[in-house]
Amino acid sequence: MGFHSAETLTPEASSNRIQAGAEAAFARLHDFYVVKPPITLEVTFKNYTPAEMLTYLRVVERVDSHTIRFVGKDMAEVSDFIDFVDTYSADMTP
Q: Which terminus of the chain is more exposed, N or C, with fewer CB under 10 A?
């Protein structure tokens, strides 16, 4: 509605909508695409330094100057790797 106001739902109404949406999704699970392992993730960085640093990990392959490749055994492992890449900073100090 404005910069400091919005139309919202009550907690009960939003909970009901979330439940209905989840039930509808579960009813059509067969419609969703399933990624079969192993899962290959490629990440391209704006700068070459993160790609260079990440290739010190033996599980990372350097594809080109700005791109790395990681192959995970399942989506959970790929998700953990993405979390690491997203939060890692070479200049972190203890």
A: C
Strand, helix or coil at 2? strand
What are the φ and ψ backbone dihedral angles of 38, each rounded to 5 degrees? -70, 155
| Single-letter amino acid code for the residue at 82 | I
**How many angstroms separate the Cα of 80 from the Cα of each of 16, 30, 44, 72, 77?**
31, 26, 17, 10, 5
State pLDDT tens for residues 40-71. 999 999 999 999 999 999 999 999 999 999 99
What is the per-residue DSSP string for 13-80?
HHHHHHHHHHHHHHHTGGGS--PPSSEEEEEE-SSHHHHHHHTTSTTEEEEETTEEEEEESSHHHHHH
Going by C-alpha positions, the residue among 62, 74, 7, 14 that lies closest to residue 38 is 74
pTM: 0.65
